[in-house]
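Hi,

Apologies if this is the wrong queue. I'm a grad student, and the batch job for 6-phospho-beta-glucosidase from Anaerosalibacter massiliensis produced an output file that my downstream script rejects. I'm not sure whether the problem is my script or the file. Here is the sequence I used:
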Amino acid sequence: MDSNRFPEGFLWGGATSACQIEGGYNLGGRGLSTADMVKFVPKEQRKGDRPPSVTRKEIQQMLKDENDYYFPKRHGIDFYHRYKEDIKLLAEMGFNVFRLSISWSRIFPNGDDEQPNEEGLKFYDNVFDECKKYDIKPLVTLSHYDTPLNLALKYNGWSNRKLIDFFAKYVRTVFERYKDKVDLWLTFNEVNVMSKNPYTGGGVFLEDSDNPLQLSYQAAHHQFVASALATKIAHEINPNNKVGCMLARAVTYPETNNPLDIIKAQKANQINLFFTDVHARGEYPGYILRYFRENNISIQKEVGDDEILKLHPVDFISISYYKSVTESSNSDAERLPDSLFTGVKNPYLETTDWGWQIDPIGLRWALNDLYDRYQIPIFIVENGLGAYDKLEEDNRIHDEYRIDYLKKHIIQMREAIKDGVDLMGYTTWGPIDLVSDSTSEMSKRYGFIYVDMDDYGKGSLKRLKKDSFFWYKKVIESNGKNLD
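Support response: The file is valid. Your script probably expects a header line. Output copied below for reference.
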């Protein structure tokens, strides 16, 4: 075997989410989602790079005065109307997999509706048919940061156990509908974000509780049960279905060899991996039980919860990986700008325009660590560089910095495979410029394809190929061998 090529059948592509690309928020019978209520805040008015925690009161006010705000995720990049053009461009790069999500509120506009919305179901029929036309396998996320808004306002999102049944109804509907078109599924995007930002992760308002951690982890438990039920239903409907969980992998290093730093980093890694421990092993590990005791957290379970978790683990683990994090017991250590996963500055790493430290070798470490722990296939479903791109007068975009970033990470993926890791595939985030989740910006660009739109939704929406478009095409054609 050529050691510089990836395994035969390796899946190469890119990843998106409905709430960041689709638009058409009020078309085709779709209902509002939690993502539709995230207003744009200019960079100079934000603190760091953390997604906002929207309150119930703020939503009520915004619904009352909608014309006073701009909500970028309502409009995305108009994939709703341009999906044929966009999928054709992905096919031109040679994609054999495309990660996208279904908007739950496009199928069940309120989340608790009796009947699904046929117009929404038909939209995804058309999208999946377009993928099939080019032999692109859809990798579909069932819930990607866009809980139906009604479920947030009426039930306080995933803090309410009723959402398990609503979700089960939704997933059974789409599994039945698309059983001949999709066989790769993810349940909840970056499921561990529930503990960091419950509004983003599951439509949960923290002001409804005097113990936010209790509320967050109770909501996470409901998602665990729902995910296991989804896996069960998927296997019943189509035995060929493969269902994975999805973790925002935040590899944490100790700042020094001080044992206090090492323990602090270990605890951070455990809290991160708790979510895959439950999905892959089907039970709550001992370290989290201690964490619950020390933080006054008591998970309310019903009879059968532990059994469903144990009987229906995921088939594979998927991760996003953008950076590593460094922790220190020194309270005076220099810390990086606030984000979902932040820490002290690592002097050995470069930093992006948004304060994320670039660590390709950390990806190899993460892959080995995950495979050693679980011994099931791993799929990298997000990895990319958010950067300012300059559109030249000749409509060219020279993004050599993005090529450099991706090249270094692919090299480390190759090394991890040589180490023995069973790596299924790689979908970069996002192959076409889209609205940033954390900041709702368009200027934080990730794509191989440039979209002519600014942070305020102005522009022609014209699609233009960046230099990285042609580079990634060569990477795919050579199955990872040609990275120059």
